[in-house]
Amino acid sequence: MPCQPLSDLHIWKKLKQHAQLIDQPEKHLRNLIREKGRLEKFSLKDAGIFYDFSRQRTDEKTLELLLELAETRKLKHRFKAMVSGEKINNTENRAALHTASRDFSSHPVVSDGKDVMPEIRRVRNEISAFAEDIHSGKITGSTGKRFKDAVVIGIGGSYLGTEFVSEALYAFADKDIEIHYLANVDIHNFGKIVSRTDPETTLWIVISKSYTTAETLANTKQAYAFMEEKGIDPAKHVVTVTSKGSPGDDPSNPVLASFHMFDFIGGRYSVTSAVGGVPLSLFLGYDRFERFLKGAEEMDNHAKNAPASKNLPLIAALISIWNNNFLGYPAQAIIPYASPLCKLAPHVQQLYMESNGKFVTKDGEFLDESAGLIIFGEPGTNAQHSFFQMAHQGRPFPIDFIGVINPQYEQFQSESKGVTNHQELWANLISQPMALAVGKEDTNTAKAFPGNRPSSTLLLNDLSPENIGRVLAFYEARTVFEAFVWDINPFDQFGVELGKTLASDIRKEMAVKNNNKEHHFDEMNPIARFYADTLFSGSF
Ligand SMILES: O=P(O)(O)OC[C@H]1O[C@H](O)[C@H](O)[C@@H](O)[C@@H]1O
After folding, report:
1. What's the CATH class of domain 6-72+306-492?
2. What is the pLDDT of residues 424-465, one digit of tens each?
3. pLDDT in tens, 106-138
4. What's the whole-model pTM score?
5. Fewer CB atoms near the end CB (10 Å): N or C, the chain?
6. 215, 297, 354, 378: which one is catalytic?
7. What spacing in Å lies between the alpha carbon of 221 and ligand 1's midpoint?
8. Which atom of ligand 1 is nearest to the CA of 496?
9. Around 67, how many Cα atoms within 13 Å sit in the side-chain half-sphere?
10. Computed over its alpha carbons, how large is the radius of gyration of the chain?
11. Whose CA is nearest to atom 13 of ligand 1?
């Protein structure tokens, strides 16, 4: 049933009024953070994460109203409907069961009248056995040598999550297999990978839910041509991960192994399925992949069961809505003070912006409030030396800071200025949110800091596979909770289609020109024609 437009809701109006109050000088963050018990009241600890939102521009009334909004929009109810297999992706008439891919309970999860769990367990077992055979050397390349490099050919949701996890857990990768990502159709991406790898010891993992994505098909063709040129049998060097019945699920095209993904798991939510399972099990070992899944499962259970006021991703979603729709911040940065999390922001960028970058509700009504935020980020302290000037003195944007208490490499303990490198990193992690919140007065306005710039801080005890799973599932749940507030469908992505269609028209024109040098791009818009003519002429 369509929901009431947001601006008609009584609670939305109350929040709008309250936002005016929060804009008053006495509610400046430098005053809010001085309140007794501020940190205790505005922080949560569960499912392996400490979540501190004491430096968000919220008071107790804000939280009370946001929780009323959560109740009105039935966030918990909708989350439960999602994990239980309801066809919540209504525009594509599908369930959204990424949570099932890391469900280790014995409960059935029914979609379309069928328990999906036996199939999910079967694929997990196949992945585990395959990884074991590769690691033991039972399966080798066509010339009998062990695999040393795995190249993931895939784009968007078929690689970003996996890249986030493989970077985050690089310190655990002891299987003597290096991982590479061939996402972009840009030939530089391909050239760079093959310039440093041995074709005899390289395994290509083609990952595509649809197996129709232009970039992935072009890169796969390029890889086949390369193998054939080097005398390598692709049937012994290619693995596929795709949907049952897709063009890639083709028995007439022999491959070393093929694994299925399911239509009820969207690409950007798929790293806990075979999409991440195959490459990550090769890179890290299946056991570590399973530990990562178990961390994600714990966060899913927390998101499903914890009461709204104690629910980390739900509160994070409400704060994000507050910052976006009531305080007017259009962007949010994710700044992990941990280099292994360097690919978290690019992953969340797709996860969140493809899910929530919508202008209509799930029922096709125009939204009366803006959905979605612009997500970006870089690890700290690097970010401090690039765009933090704007964070402190330019247009403000809320930040998620992420800190890790125990680094993966604890053995390096040399001191500079009396502290270890890790303590130096933490000195910055502690200081930046405070500087942003408090600011500093100065008679020289160029040197003044307005402060009142909101941030949250998430802490992890360490970067274990479980904790990476928890962080992943935290951002996934936060994304869908926000979508539930706006009543949008976070599982479709029709907005990526128009550009693809235009590219397809231009591709056809280029193909004609490749066959007939006399062909003119007369059908194209003059501006597009200029670029096509320029490419074919070799210079401007
Ligand atoms: O896995 P594939 O079918 O190749 O899709 C790869 C990606 O491309 C599409 O354009 C979508 O924007 C993404 O959501 C998807 O993850």
Report:
1. alpha beta
2. 999 999 999 999 999 999 999 999 999 999 999 999 999 999
3. 999 999 999 999 999 999 999 999 999 999 999
4. 0.97
5. N
6. 354
7. 18
8. 12
9. 13
10. 25
11. 156
